[in-house]
Amino acid sequence: MPTTPPSLRPGDRVAIVSTARKVTREEVAAAVETLTSWQLEVVLGESITAEHHQFAGSDALRRRDFQHQLDAPDIRAILCARGGYGTTRIIDELDFSGFAQHPKWIAGFSDVTTLNCHLLTLGHESIHGVMPLLFGQPGGEAALESLRRVLFGEPMTFSVAAHPLNRAGTATGELIGGNLTLLQNLSGTRSDCATAGRILFLEDIDEYLYNIDRMLVHLDRTGKLRNLAGLLVGHFTDPHDNAVPFGQTAYEIVATYADKYQFPVAYGFPVGHEPQNMALICGRAAQLTVAAAGTHLQYL
């Protein structure tokens, strides 16, 4: 069973860093204000304001910054400022041995799916949730509150309206998942997570419909879908199509492959690149119930 980091308490220090795309101090100002209102002390890493082309500093700088926050005994949680691209460039050179002795919450999504999966392969829970760049977005209040509740160890359950593509059933298993593109890119690497017996959640943004299909073909061919306990399908935001239409929506594409199996499936789960991006604990055992009245997810 994965290790759960200690819950935060008022007065704890938390760090904001960027493992991927560059970000300014102004862009995380709302996050600093919010975290301070939660009675946390905020430390900005050197990657915040650093710049190397599209990245938040060079690979060496981003790696050094993240490693420093991993090893710093006074830092109780690390929030990744934003996604984009870049985490996979530094993941293999990070040393998690000190972190393993003194785990702390690491939170983010999108490109940070790399960290969520890598930590789970090492036996640690982490948070797939809203990032500092997006703390002030309109409509994101519930997502932000869900992140606060997870960080401070408060109970959290989810109830979601029924969707016509849902497949009813009940499943238990550890939560795993995140951005579909990253999950496909991690296949065969040391950050690749086993999915058998687990509840997988998926989301993505700005992808062509044919590429969503191609990635799901890959996951299916590698056996990632075959022995799932259950599947949560989140936001597939701003999909693109070709001049000759693909002929299916993103959810219909997912259903093409999910329908080959018998596990329960819930569509429209509030996770992904939209304001309703509820914090999920990667590695935490949960029970998924999909029924005619809707979907319910609770941790065990």
From TrEMBL:
Gene3D superfamilies: Class I glutamine amidotransferase-like (3.40.50.10740), LD-carboxypeptidase A C-terminal domain-like (3.50.30.60). CDD domains: Peptidase_S66 (cd07025). SUPFAM superfamilies: Class I glutamine amidotransferase-like, LD-carboxypeptidase A C-terminal domain-like. One of its GO terms (molecular function) is carboxypeptidase activity. Residues 14-129 form the LD-carboxypeptidase N-terminal domain. The active site is at S110 (nucleophile), E203 (charge relay system), H273 (charge relay system). Pfam families: Peptidase_S66, Peptidase_S66C. Keywords: Carboxypeptidase, Hydrolase, Protease, Serine protease. It comes from the Bacteria. Residues 172-288 form the LD-carboxypeptidase C-terminal domain. InterPro entries: Carboxypeptidase_A_C_sf, Class_I_gatase-like, LdcA_N, Peptidase_S66_N, Peptidase_S66C, S66_fam. One of its GO terms (biological process) is proteolysis. Belongs to the peptidase S66 family. This is LD-carboxypeptidase. It comes from Hymenobacter elongatus.
